[in-house]
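step 4 of 6: structure.
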Amino acid sequence: MKGMMFTEFLDMVEARHGLAMKDALIEQAALPNAGAYTSVGSYDHRELLRLAAALSERTGVPMPALMAEYADAVFELFLRRYRPMIERATSCFDFLGRIESYIHVEVRKLYPDAEFPSFSYPQHDTQVLVMDYRSPRPMSVFAEGLIRATIRHYGEPIDLAVEDQSDGRGTAARFTMTRRPA
Ligand code: HEM
């Protein structure tokens, strides 16, 4: 996983909980590089999950809520860095429908060593969007957070239902979005 995903996490921790908490997490997660991530480097995604688990333990905030907060921060980062990619899309469903075939494809050109999940779209029309998440990494809760951040960004009246498809491992999930009648 790219270093920028780690620096975003650690910046969030420092801003919300202070430098002492950040240092404590780095120590508790026993990171090989003592938390010195560079944005261009690549690191084991399990280090991020260890940092998040340590934060959850110390703050009492459950992992899903914590990952949702992190996903919000990451979406803001994407807006700062990749706004033109996001603005090409004409609606929330249009944007989410482009993650697999355009967004992650373009980002892979910038970072050939980045690791992305795969999404398939069993249904995509004006009223309903169904996205199936599959990844070797257990990050469906993060995907859910990014989807919720996207829905908020577009401000459209859309409901989200989540179905885990990996016996709780977090490696496969179905996201069903339904447009509420105006
Ligand atoms: C402009 C918007 C987006 C950009 C630029 C972007 C870019 C990225 C980048 C750089 C990574 C990290 C890859 C790595 O570090 O190796 C990533 C991972 C990921 N992205 Fe996106 N992404 C965007 C939107 C989304 C959205 C809306 C979703 C949710 C549906 C999503 C789902 C994920 C997930 C779940 C991962 C974690 C890796 C995994 O689960 O295997 N992305 N993305």
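step 5 of 6: annotate
 - The chain has two domains: 3-61, 91-179.
 - Strands lie at 118-124, 128-134, 158-164, 172-179.
step 6 of 6: archive
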